[in-house]
Request: fold
Amino acid sequence: MERSKILVVDDESRMRKLLNDFLTRSNFTVLEAGDGEEALDMFFDDKEIALIILDVMMPKMDGYEVCRTIRKYSQVPIIMLTAKSSERDELQGFDLGIDEYVTKPFSPKLLVARVEAILRRSRASQADVVEVGGIRMDRAAHQVYIDGEPVELSYKEFELLEYFMDNQGIALSREKILNNVWNYDYFGDARTIDTHVKKLRSKMGDKGEYIKTIWGMGYKFDAGV
Amino acid sequence: MERSKILVVDDESRMRKLLNDFLTRSNFTVLEAGDGEEALDMFFDDKEIALIILDVMMPKMDGYEVCRTIRKYSQVPIIMLTAKSSERDELQGFDLGIDEYVTKPFSPKLLVARVEAILRRSRASQADVVEVGGIRMDRAAHQVYIDGEPVELSYKEFELLEYFMDNQGIALSREKILNNVWNYDYFGDARTIDTHVKKLRSKMGDKGEYIKTIWGMGYKFDAGV
DNA sequence: GAGATATGTTCACATAACTTTCACAAGGAA
DNA sequence: TTCCTTGTGAAAGTTATGTGAACATATCTC
Reply:
């Protein structure tokens, strides 16, 4: 997977540095903007920005304003940083097309998890139907076919398979799977993944072998093509 | 591998000198700070600090405080020095993002080993695919290919080969291998390395010869290219 | 809102895979 | 040769994963 470019907009440089650090560590490329105007300039200059993290409270042009302007031209995912949850409630009243709200102070780890989840979603919607090694995944219909036959998968099973198919050939640790397929607020047993993998494999028949176990590490989807 | 810069923070100058000595000998560049404020100044002045060793008990600003401040802006690895293990337990209750705890008195040798292990971890994610002399190592897929054919390696075997390939042409003592490939809390027989080397060699076929024995010393990976 | 149904999670145990140790063989150094 | 290090195969020990069932939670139906 290529490195996605993320634009961080905040007037406080410390906050920008913090986010930059964490996101860079998580393998994203980060651009920083110190105010709304700069943010708009950077966004319209660089067509490859995959996601924007936007502080609400900024001098001159606030996050709300920046968001409205961008939304006139683009559906790029936007995460809003708000200082109080009351701000958040207020904003949610308007339909600004904001993908997530994160209230300060937040755990950077959590933010990264949300960023990954959103990007996954927005990447997913690019190709609605994918077919690999006899497995056809129709995201719009939320339906999977194996050798042309429809297979009944539960919601989680579908999402798990989707994540596997989006990351073919890549070794995925349980932690990573949890972060991307489960909600960020799930803190249960990672072994639940094993159970889901078991069900997935059995529902997939002989294609179940595509889900390889990487002992001591996690799982990997590999259709061998 | 370039010399990594390490910041040692302790109010006792004897302790700083001791650490400085050992780390310098192990080929690190060392900066010293005598208190928390100085530490913060040095850290934010010098963007190249790769790791911080931090004493908990210090006058004015304690290690706990320093850590929290740094964590607001940076994910640099931090090793905490604690006087009693009770302190350690207490600290672990908070999620400060500390990478390691070392309880005084400690063996400097052990500390150096931990430093190396942590730095290796944080460096590891640089090049995802490496190929040398017909051996292709795909870290993302956690898979090794020899002459294009996939080879099944266990977790430890993979890590061992990874370490060898990251240190091509360098003679590696068993001690060093243990410190870097095994966990620091492994105190078993170093001969387990021999067994793993044997398995690796046999799984690598004629490429097994790349792992040379350095009699009386250890091993070396050398693809002769 | 109660009961039924489907889905998701946890648990305990079986199984499989891996790691370490051991004992002895083989090989290099003095 | 003699001492010490390394190679090797197999046994013993350890840990991770597979699996079925119980339990919990959410969803649907009436």
Notes: Residues 154-157, 188-189, 191-192, 195-196, 215-216 of chain B lie near DNA strand C (CB under 10 Å from a C1').
